Amino acid sequence: MSETAKKYVSFYYENGGGMNKIKINPQKTALLIVDMQNHFVRTDFGEALDYKADGEWERWLPFYTRLHDIVIPNTQKLIESLRKNKIEVTHGRIASLKKDGSDRCLVQRKPGWNDILLPVNSENAQIIDELKPLDDEIVVNKTTDSVVAGTNYTSLIRNMGIETIIVTGIVTDQCVASTVRDLADEGFEVIVVEDCCAAADHRLHENELEIMNVIYCSIMNTDEVIDLVEKSLK
Question: Does pTM top 0.85 for this prediction?
Fold first, then answer.
């Protein structure tokens, strides 16, 4: 178990059950980046929030601070290392095929922050420039929270012989968590990179990591993942 994972041990595993050392085969490993899109990351695209509402910007400021000071730089560092070591980098994003969003699941039509309308060709739907996919990298479009439930992602990566998925992205307690659970149920080993994820509230982020740790995934940080990959290549 990584040092980061030890910080997120729940009641179920506090006596050590199930906490094994992580091993990967780099040739059978992929990175999945979830929902790092203009709509959620760039405040100048801010349809997701009404910043004019009293106290709303101040309430969300820690989320954006974490994104730009921690999550994006660490994800860039991780991508650079994994691409260098020939590990597949993949992306999942929210994007409706219908301009009116009529193909969205119920979760993405509910009132409030989760009422997400991102037509596939809109600027809001695009992955941020800092994490822009390469031409040969898989990008799947979903109208659900889970990358697995809403796309043919698992079929694609199974065709490629992938067994382990390293997951990053936003938000930890919604789309990331839904994706992680589904990947685990589909039989994949999953690693969640703690400092490449964020939730609207950091308490929610930490609580969700504690819930998912050990049973659905292994929690690591960026440096631990890079070290794991490099050692597995020796």
Answer: yes
